[in-house]
Amino acid sequence: MEQHCPRLEEMLRTHGPGSTPASHGRYALIGQPKTLVIVERMESAPFLLCGQWGKELETVFLDDLEFVRGPRICLSR
After folding, report:
1. How far are the Cα atoms of 1, 19, 66 from residue 60, in angstroms, in the given order?
2. Which of 45, 51, 56, 77 has the fewest CB atoms within 10 Å, i.e. is most exposed?
3. Whole-angstrom Cα distance, residue 36 to residue 30?
4. How far apart are CA 31 and CA 50, in angstroms?
5. Domain ranges of the chain
6. 57: exposed, middle or buried (Cβ count in 10 Å: 0-12, 13-18, 19+)
7. Contact (Cβ atoms closer than 8 angstroms) between residue 49 and residue 57
């Protein structure tokens, strides 16, 4: 968490609740507590996360989070 705090703060500032992109109904995960866990998985086990991505989680929300976070990890989509 401490290692990624600046990135998370930037994500929250630019795309979190109250931001222009969020006002259009996008980036719903940013600002939610579960975002910390998902971003940690993106960093530590990206391919494991990709394997579960389409099975259990809302793909559009995760795609938005991945876009804001930085380099895409699930290039097959």
Report:
1. 24, 18, 10
2. 56
3. 9
4. 21
5. 5-69
6. middle
7. no
pLDDT tens digits, one per residue of 19-50:
988 888 788 888 888 888 888 888 788 777 77
- What is the Cα–Cα distance from 48 to 5, expressed in whole angstroms? 23
> Quick one: pLDDT band at residue 58, thresholds 50, 70, 90?
low
The model scores a pTM over 0.70: no
SS3 for 58-76 is: CHHHHHHHHHHHCCCCCCC
73 with 52: CB under 8 angstroms?
no
Structure token pair of residue 60: 């559009």
Closest CA to 65 of 31, 27, 33: 27
